Amino acid sequence: MRVKDKGLINRAVPLRFTFDGRHYEGFQGDTLASALLANDVRLVGRSFKYHRPRGILTAGSEEPNALMTITDRAEPNVRATVQELYQGLSAKSQNNWPSLARDALSVNDLMAPFLSAGFYYKTFMWPRAFWERVYEPLIRRAAGLGALDKTHNPDLYEKAYAFCDVLIIGAGPAGLMAALTAGRAGARVILADEDSLMGGRLNSETYQIGDHTGQDWAAAAVSELTAMDNVRLMPRTTVTGAYDQGTYGALERVAHHIAKPADDLPLECFWRIVAKRAILCAGSLERPIAFPMNDRPGIMTASAVRSYLNRYGVAPGKSIAIYGNNDNAHQTAHDLAAAGVKVAAVIDSRADAQVQGDFPVYTGAEVINTTGRLGLEEILVRHNGENLMVNADCLAMSGGWNPTVHLTCHMNGRPVWREGILAFVPADDAIPGLSVAGAARGIFSTRGCLQDGAKVALQVLDDLGIKARADVPEAEETPYQISPLWAVQGKGRAWLDFQNDVTVKDVKQAAAENFRSVEHMKRYTTQGMATDQGKNSNVGALAVLADVTGRAIPETGTTTFRPPFSPVSIAALGAGAQGKGFAPERFTTSHLPSIQRAAPMIEAGLWYRPSYFPMPGEQTWRESCDREVNMVRTKVGICDVSTLGKIDIQGPGAAEFLDFVYTNTFSTLKVGRVRYGLMLREDGYVMDDGTTARLGDHHYVMTTTTAAAGQVMRHLEFVHQCLKPKLNVRFISVTEQWAQFAVAGPRARDVLNALLDDPIDNDSFPFMACGQVKVAGTPGRLFRISFSGEHAYEVAVPARYGESLFRLLCAQAEAMGGGPYGMEALNVLRTEKGFVTHSEIHGRTTAFDIGAERMVSAKKDCIGKTMAARPGLIDDHREQLVGLKPAGAVKQLIAGGHLFAPGAEAVRVNSQGYVTSVGYSPTLDCYLGLGFLKNGRARHGERVKMVDHLKGVETLCEVCDPVFFDPEGGRLRG
Amino acid sequence: MRYSALRVIKEGLTGNRGWQPVWRDPEPKAEYDIIIIGGGGHGLATAYYLAKEHGVTNVAVLEKGYLGGGNVGRNTTLVRANYFLPGNSEFYSHSLKLWEGMEHDLNYNAMHSQRGLINLFHSDAQRDAFVRRGNAMINQGDDAILLDRDGVRKMVPYLDFDNTRFPIYGGLYHPRGGTARHDAVAWGYARGADQRGVDLIQQCEVTGIDIEGGVVKGVQTTRGAIRAKKVGIVVAGRSGQVAAMAGMRLPIESHVLQAFVTEGLKPCIDHVVSFGMGHFYISQSDKGGLVFGGDLDFYASYAARGNLPMVEHVMEAGMTLMPMIGKARVLRSWGGIMDMTPDGSPIIDKTDTEGLFIDCGWCYGGFKAVPASGFAFAHLMATGRPHDTAEKFRLDRFRTGVSIMDEEGTGAQHNLH
Amino acid sequence: MRITCPICGERDRREFYYQGAAVALDRPAPDAGPQAWDDYVHLRDNPAGRTCDLWFHEMGCGAWIVVERDTVTHEVYSTELAEKAAR
C-alpha cells in the first residue's frame, strides 16, 4: 500500500511491470520489492526444502526469500529488494509448480518430520543402483532455485582496474563523512556503495542531521562529492572481496536498472580496485528472531519496514505489529504512526523497555505463534502469562543488529564478540590497510557514525601524509539497548535460515548427533549456506548452538565469511573471454595467403597454422597431405615455420652459456654453422630441442619448438640471472620479428636461387651452414637445416616482408611442380625421418629414452646432467623410442595405442609401451608409428601387438629403427 | 545406530528425539597401538580400515580442529579413475571400487553419483594423449569411451561449439566418474571408525613427535603426551610442519587451490565436464549449485584463500567453454592447501624413523583417493608392507628416479602438477 | 596481490611467473652427491611463515626476483634482483 507524501520515489514517472504474468505499476525509484509491496503482493517465493510460502524479509542484498527470475533478461535468482524497477520489467517467481500459490511440492512441508537435518545421509541407499537412476534425479529436480535458460550469454560484461588513495566501502553516514573528509583534503577517493542511492540507512530513517533531514544531508553530501575531481562515486557497486596488498574486487551493476541499455553499455563491470588504504563503512544488518512460525509472508525485519515506508513510501501492511528486543525497533512504530499506518502492537521482550505511543504495548512479551497460510493474519503473543491474539498482516521484527564484518573476514580474520551489543565486531587489522568505521564496528547512532567516519578518515589520511581536518555536523545520539533474544520457545518450527529451511530444531538435532562444532553444524544442517551466506541467520544459529551445547557464543566460534560479499555473475568475473577472448590469437605473416588458398587453420598453442593446402579435386585431408609429402620428397615444398621460438643470444659469454644449457657443445660451433641441440630440465628430463646458429663469435640465434618458446626463454633468463649472473650474455625473443619459411625438397636450392641476390651452391652453403643473405634485395638469414629429411633451408626475413616472401616462394615452388605444405604433411615427413616432437619429448622422457644419450657431453656440466644419471633414469627397462610398422593383416596404427607381446592379454601389467605419433607414409606406402617400448632399442625386428581398445583396433607391428626413410641422410646433403 | 529409511520414518514420527551421537568425544588415553595424526578424509579412512581390515582398534585419530575440516571438506568433490601411469592407474582404480561399495560398507549415504566425467580435448595432439590415457584405463579394467565432436555435442549440447577459442575436437568419457558429498565421506568414515572402537579426538593438536634411538615412542599434544607404538602422519596442507617434528624435509611445496560454488539452479549440467585448454572443471551439486575449480594460484601459500587472477582465469575458461553459465552467480569461493610434490603423485611410505609412517603429497587429487589411501596406509601401518596398489608411492623415488609418476609431464617444479 | 619489481616498481601479480623456493639459486656442484641434488631439486623447507621464493617478471622487464614474503599472510617484506642475490 502506497503512503502519501513519503519516500524518495518519483511519482511523476510511473513504471509498468509484471510479476508471474500479472501487470502492476510502480514508480521510478522503486525496487521490484517495494513496488510489489505497494501493490499488496506479499507472497513472492517458496523456500528451498519445504516449499513454504515466503514473503519479502529485508530491503537489501541480504534478502533470502524474494529471489526471482527477471524473464526479459533471462536472469535467475535476482533479489527483488535490489532490482531497480524499469519500464516493462517482467519477473517470475521460482521453485514452484504449477503456481506460486498452489505449489505441488509444498507436500514436502507435510513430510517435514522425515526431512530433518541430514536425513539424506541416512537413507536413499537401497537398492544400490537407485541413487543415480531414481533418488538423485528426483532430488535434483526438486532442488535448485531459478533456472538458467541454457543459451549462450547474449550480454556484454566488462572488467576494469581503478587506483586510489582511499577506497571507502559504503556510503552511509560514516562513509559519506569519511569521503567528505578525505575528498576535501585532496586525496584520490573512491566511494563505492551497493545501493543506487547513496546515503545508506539515512535514506530509510527519519533522523535529523544539523538542520536537515538525514535524507537531505546525504543528498547534499553526494552533491559536494560529485563536484570534486579527486573523488569517484561508484553507486550500484558492491565491493565483493578483499585481497592481498590493497586489492579489492567490486561489481558494478551498470545497466540492470535500464529498460533498454545502449548496445555498448555493459550489463555489469567487475572492478579490481587497488587502494593505498580502505575504510569499511558497510553498516550493519538487522537480525530476525527465531520464534515459532516466523516465516510467513508479511513477517520482515523492522528496518525493512522503515525502508519501505521512509524511502519508498510503502506500508508493507495495513495493520503492522512490531516485535523486538532493542530500542531501535521502537522507531518503526513511531515512523508508522506518524505516517498514519495502523500499529497493531509493539511487543518487546524486555520487561523494562520504555515505549511511548498511541498503540498497544506489551513489554516482557514474546510472539509464540502465527497464522495465515499464504500470508500473516494473526500473531499469538504471550504476555504476563497469558496468550493473546493480535490481528496483523505484517510483523516487523528486530533481534538486534550485526555489524557487516564480512570483508574483514576475507583474509581469515575472526570477528570478536562484543557483549554490550550482542554482536560480532571486526577484529583489529584483519585486513592490512583496511580500517573500519561506524556501524560496521558496532557504533549504532547517527552521531557516532558521522564522528567515527571523520575520525577514521583523519587517521588514514595522516598515515598517507595528507593533511586534513574534519567538519562533523550535529546529529542525535540514539540509545541502543538490547537484551538476548535468540529463539522463542513454542509449539511450531522456528526458522533460522529461511531459504534453506533450517530451524532451531535442526540445530538442536545436529548438536544431539554430536555435530557440535559450528562448522559441523553448518555443514550438517546447511545453515548459512543459502544465497545470503548466513547474513540473516548465522549469529542466531550460533546462539542456539551455544545454548544447547552449554557454551558461550565466543567459545562456540564462527564460520568463515568468504568472498564474494554478495554473489557475482560468472559472466562479470569472466568478462571478455567468451568466444575468442579467452586467449590471445597469434597469426603468422602467411595467415592471409594461407586462407586464400583455403587452408584450414588449426590452433598450435596460441598460433594458427595451416593444416594442409587443398587442391581442386581433393576430397579428404589425406589426399592433400599425401600429395604435399610427395611434393616435398620429389620437388619442393614451402612451409611457414615462424611459430618456432627464435631467441637472439649475444655477448662474450654466449658460447659458455649455451654449453651450460644444452647437453651438447656450442662453443666449438664455427661461425656460419648450425647445430642441433638438446636441452634438459634440471630434473634430467628433456625440456626442448632445436637448432642454434652461430652468426658471430658472440652472436647465436636459437630456435625452440613452438610449444616451448616461452618456457625456454624463461629458462634461459633463469639460468643466466640465477645461476650464471657473471656471464656477459643477453637474450631477446625475436620470434615475432622474423618471418621464417622452410624450403624443402630436391628443388629447394633452385627456388631460393631465384630469389637470392647472390645465388648459393653446395660448397658455399653446405648442410648445416647459415649466414646473412639478401632476398629480393632485403637483408635476411638463411639456414640449411631440415625437419623433413630433404635438402632443405629455412629462410628468414623481417616480419614485414613475410607475406610477400611467402607468396614469392610459393610462386617459385609452384613453377617447379611444388607448393606450400601444412602441418599434416610436416608431421608425416618428420615421422618418416624419426624426428621427435613434443609427442615424444612429452616431459617424461630422457635423452636416454629417445636415443640421444650420446648428445650429453661427458666433458662438461650442463643443466639436468646430474639428475639424468639417477639410476631410475638410465635403467635398461625404460621405454625407449622405436619405430613401428604394421606387420600383419591389419594395417592401421593409432597414436595412443598400447604395445603388448603378441600373445599377451591387453591389460596393464602386460603393457610394454605405447604409440606416440602415427602418419600414413605415401613414400613407403604404409602407416608408420613412433612409440616407446620397454628396452626397445634392443628389440628391433621383434613383433609387438598394438591395441587400441577405444576404437577396437589390434595391429601386429614390427619394431624397427625410428628412422624409416633415408637413414644415411644422403638427401640432406644433396 | 543403524541408518535406514525405516529409522528415518520412525524418528520422524517420534519428534526426531532418538538420534544418537555419530561419534563419541573420548578423552585421550595414555597409550595407543597406533596414532593417526590428522582427522581428515585420509586419516579417518585409515583408522576405519585399520579396525575393519586388520582388527587394530586401539587407535586414536588426533585432529587439531574439527573432523573433516581440511581438504576433504573444501574440494570440488570429483571421483574418478582416469590416471594413465603405472602406479597411479591401479591405485585410483582400487579407490573407485572402494567408492562403489562405500555407502553400504559405512551405512552412510555419501551421495556418490556416477554421473560420468567428460575430459574435452582441443587438438589432435591432445586427442592422442587422451587415447593413450583411455587405453590405460581400459587396460586397468576401468571404463573409457572416446567421443568425437558430435558425440560430445549429444551429451553436453550447451558448450560453445562454434566460437570458443579452442575448438572442441572431442572428449574422453569416463562413465563411472562422478561426484560425492564431500563432508559425508569424512563423517561416514568417522562414524565407522568410532563404532569399531577408534578414539576420534578433536581439538588436539600435535606439537611434537617423540623419537628415541630412531624409534617413534609417541606424540606431544595440546592435550598432553600420548604414547604409541606406531604413528602415522596424514596431514595434507601441514605435512611439512608435522614431518619437521620428526626432523624430516619433504619433497613438498604447499599451494593454495581455489574452488567456487554458485547459487542454486535447476539442473543444467548433468555430468562432470573438464576443459582441456587450461584447468577448469565443473559439475552441479544435488542442491543445484555449480561447483567448479581451476588451477593453483601458483605461489606457495598456507593462507587457505586465494587472489583474483586465478578467480578470473577460471571464470574466463568457463565463459569461453560454456557461456550459458554467465548469469550463474558465484556465491562463495574458498581455498585449500595442497601438498604439491615434484611429480604430482602422492607418497604413502615408511620413514627413516621406525614406527613412523607418512601419507601425503596428494596435490589436488586427494578427495577421490580417500578410500584407497586409507586402505593402503592402514595396510602399510598394520603389516609393515606396502599394499599392492600403492607400492610405487615411495618417498625416495625422487632421489633414485625410480617410478616417477608425472602425469602432467611438467617436471620437478612443485606447482606445475 | 602486488609485487614490487626492483626495476619496474609495484605491479599486479599477474605480470609475474612463480617458480618456487629461492633455494634454486644454490645449485650444487655436479659431484655433490645424490642427497645434495635431491635437496636442491625436490626437498623443500616449505615454511608456514617467512620464505624467499623466485618470481619472474615475465610480462614486464624479464627480471628474476627474490621475493621475501609470508606464506600465511601473503605480506611481502622485500624484493631483490636474483642476479644480485646470486652473486
TrEMBL record, chain A:
It comes from Parasulfitobacter algicola. Belongs to the GcvT family. This is Sarcosine oxidase subunit alpha family protein. PANTHER family: AMINOMETHYLTRANSFERASE, AMINOMETHYLTRANSFERASE, MITOCHONDRIAL. InterPro entries: 2Fe-2S-bd_N, BFD-like_2Fe2S-bd_dom_sf, FAD/NAD-bd_sf, GcvT/YgfZ/DmdA, GcvT/YgfZ_C, GcvT_C, GCVT_N, Sarcosine_oxidase_asu. SUPFAM superfamilies: Aminomethyltransferase beta-barrel domain (SSF101790), FAD/NAD(P)-binding domain (SSF51905), Folate-binding domain (SSF103025). NCBIfam families: soxA (TIGR01372). It holds the Pfam family GCV_T. Residues 597-860 form the GCVT N-terminal domain. Keywords: Oxidoreductase.
UniProtKB/TrEMBL annotation, chain B:
Its EC number is 1.5.3.24. It is found in: Cytoplasm. It holds the Pfam family DAO. It comes from the Bacteria. Residues 34-78 form the Rhodanese domain. Keywords: Cytoplasm, FAD, Flavoprotein, FMN, Nucleotide-binding, Oxidoreductase. InterPro entries: FAD-dep_OxRdtase (IPR006076), FAD/NAD-bd_sf (IPR036188), Rhodanese-like_dom (IPR001763), SoxB (IPR006278). It catalyses: sarcosine + O2 + H2O = formaldehyde + glycine + H2O2; sarcosine + (6S)-5,6,7,8-tetrahydrofolate + O2 = (6R)-5,10-methylene-5,6,7,8-tetrahydrofolate + glycine + H2O2. Its cofactor is FAD; FMN. Transmembrane segments: none annotated. The keyword Flavoprotein applies. PANTHER family: FAD-DEPENDENT OXIDOREDUCTASE DOMAIN-CONTAINING PROTEIN 1, SARCOSINE DEHYDROGENASE-RELATED. Belongs to the SoxB family. This is Sarcosine oxidase subunit beta. It comes from Parasulfitobacter algicola.
Automatic annotation (TrEMBL), chain C:
It holds the Pfam family SoxD. InterPro entries: SoxD (IPR006279), SoxD_sf (IPR038561). This is Sarcosine oxidase subunit delta. It comes from Parasulfitobacter algicola.
